[in-house]
Each structure stands twice: as structure tokens, then as C-alpha cells.
Amino acid sequence: MWRHVEVGMKRNLPCYSLVFITKGDGVFLDGASHQEIPIQKGDLLCLFPGRPHAYAPPEGQCWNEINIEFSGPVFDPWTGIGLLDPGEPVRHLVPSGDDKLIRYWMKKFYAVALPLAERKVPEPDLSDSGRLISLIAEMCATWRTPTTDADSEWANQAKRQLLELPLREQPDFAALAGTFGLGEQAYRKKFKRLCGVSPFVFRSRQLIGAACHELICSHKPIKEIGYELGFRSLYYFSRKFKQVTGKTPGDYRKLATT
């Protein structure tokens, strides 16, 4: 039996929040659309400043979650696109409930949250923001809801292969396709069908997430950052960066550091 999420239980946050459900299930109420959305382990709740919401596990039960709250102008350009879309507050980050992938994302969340907890500081510094931006970018590139368990396992494995490659290494898509017993064209089509983007776009977004981190957390020249991530020219790096974030690397760094 679901616990009924009453309108009076809704709350407004003064900040953004990402809530990753690592165990259990429940229901989410979006105060704007008045929709009740089922939640399961592996789901990510994306909460926004001033947007009423409520969520709860079934009556008499509990769940496990990891919660990160954040605010600031560096995150505002993400709102309305990708992961931070108020119209889709529940994302199936690990739709299969795969415990291995859930542990992978738990480590990513802890990598953002633990440095703050260990330093016991009230406000994050630029390196904290960089780690969070990198996490958001990777989740944006990863999110998709495959249609079957077999599809989910295939998509998870294909994405994991790309995520585990060294950032500067150019993916050999033909070789990756071969690990699934597919030709390169068939691999690309299946990846796009199940993951929502082509493997090339998926990889590009992963690299841009890493670039966001470097732009905020280091004083390296923009050209050097692009080169370290395998972009063959500053022009190409800037063009790809703007396609994903809506800003040039220079504008992004200025916004994040002012």
C-alpha cells in the first residue's frame, strides 16, 4: 500500500537538490503538475528552487537515499535542459536496478559530498562546484530508460565501456562493437536507440563534463584543457563545448569564477 502523499506535505527548497534512491521504492508528487510518479531503486529525483514537491516510501517501509543540495549561478544555465529539467523530476539513472551500477553512482555522489563533510565548511569552493558539474554532466550523458531488461543490460554495459576509457583516448568504436558481436554501424544504431544519443555524442558529453571541472578547478589555459581531453584544436573544443553547455569555455569560466 502506498503512503498517500498529501498536498500539505509538499515543500519548497531554496536550492537545487539531487536525491539518488539506492534501496527501496516509493512515490514522488510533483506539486506543479500534480502527478504522482512511482520511484524505484536506481532512480534520481531532481528538485528545483521554489518548485513544490513531496516524496515518500510505502507506508511502514523505508528506503536509502543520497542527497546533494547546491545553488549558484554556475548551475542556472543547466536548468530546463538535460538532467535539470523541471518537467522531468524523476530520472531512471539505473533503470535495471543493477547493484553494480548503483554502487558506481554512489561513489560518484560520495566523491562530491565527502570533501565538504570532511572539511566541515558551510560553503563549497570552486573545486567542489567542479566535481558536482562533472557529476551532472555524466548523468546527463547517461540517463535513458531502456525498454526491456536485456536492452537495459546492453545499454548499461555499452555506456560503462565508454565511461571507463581514459579521457584522452579516442574510442575505437569498431572494436567496441566487436565486444557485442556487432558491426560498427549496427552498434551505433543500437546504442542510439537505447541510450538516446550516439556513442560519439555520449563520449563528447563525458569529455565536456571533464572540461567543466578543469575550467573551474584549475588555471590551465583553455587550449591546454582541450588538448588534454583530445580535442584537436581550440576552435573544435569551443564549438563542442558550446553545443553542450550553451556557452563558450571562456564565458563558462568567467561565470563560474565571478
Please explain how this structure is put together.
With 258 residues, the protein is an alpha+beta fold. The protein folds into 2 domains: 1-98, Sandwich (Jelly Rolls); 124-258, Arc Repressor Mutant, subunit A, CATH 1.10.10. The protein has 9 helices and 7 strands; from the N terminus they run βββββββααααααααα. Strands 6-1-4-7 form a 4-stranded antiparallel sheet, covered by helices on one side. A 3-stranded antiparallel sheet has the order 3-2-5, with no helix packed on it. Strand 2 (26-30) and strand 3 form a beta hairpin. The longest helix has 21 residues, at 99-119. It starts with 15 loop residues before the first strand and ends with a helix.
CATH class of the largest domain: Mainly Alpha
How many domains make up the coordinates? Answer: 2
Global outline? globular
Gross CATH architecture of the largest domain:
Orthogonal Bundle
User: Structural class per helix/strand content?
Assistant: alpha+beta
Sequence of secondary-structure elements:
EEEEEEEHHHHHHHHH
Main sheet specs: 4 strands, antiparallel
What's a quick, concise take on this entry?
Helices cover 46% and strands 14% of the residues. It has helices at residues 99-119, 126-142, 149-163, 173-178, 184-195, 199-217, 222-228, 234-245, 249-257; strands at residues 16-23, 26-30, 35-39, 44-47, 53-56, 64-70, 90-91.
Keywords:
7 strands; Arc Repressor Mutant, subunit A; 4-stranded antiparallel beta sheet; 3-stranded antiparallel beta sheet; 258 residues; alpha+beta; single chain; Jelly Rolls; disordered N terminus
